[in-house]
Structures are given as C-alpha cells and as structure tokens.
C-alpha cells in the first residue's frame, strides 16, 4: 500500500483536480477498495446537488433527476439514496454497462480532493430518453433546468434540446462549469450551450481555464466572471448571472455590469473532514431558495451554508435537518 501522495503520482493525479478516467486509471478503483479505508457515498455531481436542494426545501419531489445507470448493485444504491432524499428520479437503465463510479482521494486532512470519474453507464444517456411521455411531462412542468458541463461529454443533443425548450418558454436554464478540463477540451459544445445559460456556476480554477481557452487575456476572477456574464445570450428578457466560488474566499456574483462579493463562513481546520462535494452542495443550497423566488443574496447565503455543512462530513452527506432559516 502506498502513501496517498505516492498513490496520486502513480496514477498521474493532482491533489486538487477533477478528471475523467483513462485506461491507466481503471486498476486504481480495485486497488483503492482492497488496500485503503474506503467510504462509499451515493453521488454524481448533479445528484449531489439535487439531494442537497431537497434536504433544504424539506418537501419531496420538488427536484427531478435524469441520468443513465447500470442494472447493478451500485445503481440500486444510487436510486434508493436519491429517493430517500426525496428526489424524483427518471433514470435510463443500461443493460450491460455498470453504474458509473468516481474515485476521490482526500489529502491534507480534507483540504484537497482529487476526483477521477469513470462514467461507464452515465456515458450512455441518449436523447431519446427525453422523448418518453413521462419525461416529456417532467420537462413541460419544470420551470428550472440545471445541468453540469460534464454532461457535454455524454449527450450534447440532450442539452441543446432542453436549452432550446427553456429559452422558447422563458424558463431558467442553469449550468455548472464542473471541471477545468471541460473548459479546455469540450469548449466547442460548451460555447454552443452557453448562449442559453441564464445562471452559470463555477469555481476559480474553472473560471481561470475558461478565460485562458476563450483568450480573454485577463487573470482577475472578478473580471472573468463579469466578462462571461456579458457574452451573447439568447433569452434577452433576463440578464445572465455568473457565480464563482473561491474556496474559503468570497463568492463572486457578476451580472448587469456589476460585481457583488459574498463572504464565506469560516470553518476551523479541525472541523473540516472532506471538501469533496462542496461545490455541488453550494449549488444545491442556491437552487433550494432560487426555486422559491428568494432574493439572490439569500440564495447565495444558503449555498454557502450548504457547502459549509458538507465539508464537515465525509463525502456529500448531510446532517439530519437543516438549520438555515431564510
């Protein structure tokens, strides 16, 4: 068994990063399970966000989730955990591919996390799943749509179908940059979807990579957020909002030519267990208040609260009851 830092080097992983698994990473999953103390959490970035949002609204089936899973034990766990959290799921099931998994290596006493996602069945979602009557009903009833950019690696046509539906019907379309490499290697489909985005989420590393790949020529995260907010937009009835998190530094919101900073809550280092899932939780907190039409400052404060709670737990898990009251 290797020290964790040696393990990261062995598989070409960075301390604080998120990547898709390549062939060289596949043996890593078995090695981790056999040689290290492993915690299992029902995750997936979007499912994490939906679970957190449901936890905060405390009313079942406010949020629905689509994705593709395998017909296996991990798929059963994912579905049961989502339903237990009150999320309405409408999965596509794959007959042969296993449910996707993500290895998360935690270092520096929870301060850094390296994610390596093996999408597997998640990579097999097809646009025709959206055409099922039950899913058409969900789409027509929904007023808000949220996607993670990692889905651009799976089914861009599905994203564009939802984006166009939202724009045509003046519904809100929200997207998360998800990981720096997506801004780098999937920028073409990303820029096809971006004109439809009403609210864009990301962190400082993702914003910096976006700026580099789009040749903005600027390094300030605040200026990058403002520049993204001003990019062309299909639905001109509402301005684009860009929200960038920066770890324990202030959250940046850029919209209509203005920057607003929201201070985070200080968490003592000894209380931090695992920063994995903090970004997903932030968006879940934001969405829980956004769908209730709360002011943006309340939405962001709820996002900060949710992220603060998650980093005190192992994985994207939550206390029994929320205490946020706005």
Instruction: Give the termini distance in whole angstroms.
Output: 47 Å
The number of helical segments is 12
Strand content: 15-25%
In order across it, which strands form the biggest sheet? Answer: 8-9-10-11-12-13
Low-pLDDT ranges: none
Overall number of strands = 13
What are the secondary-structure elements, in order, as H or E? HEHHEEHEEEEHEHEHHEHHEEEHH
Q: Into which percent range does the helicity of residues fall?
A: 25-40%
Q: What do you see in this structure?
A:
The protein has about 325 residues and is of the alpha/beta class. Helix content is about 40%, strand content about 20%. It has twelve helices and 13 strands. The protein has helices at about 5-10, 25-35, 45-55, 75-85, 135-140, 155-170, 180-185, 185-195, 205-215, 220-230, 280-290, 295-310, and strands spanning about 15-20, 65, 70, 90, 90-95, 100-105, 110-120, 145-150, 170-175, 200-205, 240-245, 250-255, 260. It has a six-stranded mixed β-sheet. A three-stranded mixed β-sheet has the order 1-7-6, with helices on one face. Strand 11 and strand 12 form a beta hairpin. Helix 3 packs across helix 11 (about 280-290) and helix 11 (about 280-290) packs antiparallel against helix 12 (about 295-310). The longest helix is centred in the C-terminal third of the chain and has 15 residues, at about 295-310. The mean pLDDT is about 95.
């Amino acid at each position: 068994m290797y020290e964790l830092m040696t393990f990261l080097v062995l598989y070409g992983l960075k301390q604080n990063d998120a990547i898709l698994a390549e062939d060289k990473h596949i043996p890593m999953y078995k090695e981790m399970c056999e040689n290290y103390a492993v915690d299992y959490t029902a995750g997936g970035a979007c499912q994490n966000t939906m679970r957190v949002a449901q936890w905060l609204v405390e009313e079942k089936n406010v949020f629905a989730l689509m994705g593709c899973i395998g017909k296996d034990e991990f798929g059963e766990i994912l579905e049961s955990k989502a339903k237990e959290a009150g999320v309405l799921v409408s999965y596509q099931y794959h007959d042969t591919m296993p449910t996707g998994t993500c290895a998360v290596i935690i270092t520096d006493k929870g301060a850094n996390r390296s994610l390596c996602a093996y999408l597997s069945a998640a990579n097999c979602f097809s646009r025709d799943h959206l055409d099922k009557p039950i899913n058409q009903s969900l789409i027509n009833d929904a007023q808000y749509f949220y996607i993670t950019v990692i889905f651009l690696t799976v089914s861009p046509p599905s994203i564009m179908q939802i984006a166009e539906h939202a724009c045509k019907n003046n519904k809100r379309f929200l997207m998360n940059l998800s990981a720096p490499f997506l801004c780098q290697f999937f920028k073409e489909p990303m820029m096809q979807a971006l004109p439809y985005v009403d609210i864009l989420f990301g962190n400082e590393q993702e914003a910096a990579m976006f700026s580099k790949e789009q040749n903005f020529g600027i390094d300030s995260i605040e200026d990058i957020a403002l520049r993204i907010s001003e990019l062309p937009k299909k639905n001109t009835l509402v301005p684009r909002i860009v929200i960038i998190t920066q770890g324990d530094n202030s959250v940046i919101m850029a919209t209509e030519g203005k920057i607003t900073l929201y201070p985070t809550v200080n968490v003592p280092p000894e209380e931090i267990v695992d920063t994995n899932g903090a970004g997903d939780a932030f968006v879940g907190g934001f969405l829980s208040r956004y769908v209730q039409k709360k002011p943006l400052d309340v939405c962001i404060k709820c996002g900060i609260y949710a992220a603060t709670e998650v980093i005190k737990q192992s994985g994207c898990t939550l206390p029994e009851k929320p205490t946020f009251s706005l």
